[in-house]
Amino acid sequence: MVSQAFARSAYMQQGMYRSRSYAEVAALAVRKMLEGKLAAGELAESAGTAKVEASYDGGAGSRITVTADNEGLQQLLEDRKAWSLVPAPGQYQLYYRKVTFQVSLNHDAVRVGLSPQ
User: Fold this and answer.
1) What is the sign, positive or negative, of the torsion defined by CA atoms of 89, 96, 103, 66?
2) Are 76 and 31 in contact (CB under 8 A)?
3) 81, 96 in Cβ contact below 8 A?
4) Per residue in 58-101, pLDDT tens?
5) Averaged over 19-23, what is the pLDDT?
6) Is 5 helix (H, G, I), strand (E, B) or coil?
7) pTM of the model as a whole
8) d(CA 102, CA 84)
9) What is the gyration radius of the CA atoms in the chain, in angstroms?
10) Is the pLDDT of residue 117 over 70?
11) DSSP characters for 27-94?
12) Which of 3, 90, 101, 107 is 20 to 30 A from 50, alpha carbon to alpha carbon?
């Protein structure tokens, strides 16, 4: 009885650790993707906010949908090649089928939040 409770507790802790690790790494990957473009001077007129919905069916993002309040930011975020560098939840043994990224871009700062579903 005690060993089953311990096993369940360890399993839950591992799941929370994997979720937190995925969130940190995925957000960092998106931030670095945009900061690289910011350093190259490509984001001068792309300040704004965007919502990116990434659907995962078999590993890498199979479908990316971008909604942005700025056309330049939307075009930057629709770069499928760049999104292929963002890890899929399956790489962290997570079963999320969809992740929503909230992206906010200032002239000098990129903020990324995500919500797995």
Assistant:
1) positive
2) no
3) no
4) 655 578 899 998 888 888 888 888 888 889 898 998 888 899 99
5) 93
6) helix
7) 0.82
8) 18
9) 16
10) yes
11) HHHHHHHHHHHHHTTTTTT--EEEEEEEEEEESEEEEEEEEESSHHHHHHHT-HHHHTTSPPGGGGT-
12) 90
| Structure-block tokens of residue 28 | 């960092």
Token pair of 65 as six digits:
């949908």
Q: Which residue has the tokens 């659907």?
A: 55
In this structure, which amino acid lies at residue 91? Q
Of 78, 98, 87, 99, residue with least CA distance to 25: 87
Picking from 108, 102, 117, the residue whose alpha carbon sits closest to that of residue 49 is: 102
* Among candidate residues 31, 24, 34, the one with its CA nearest the CA of residue 116: 24
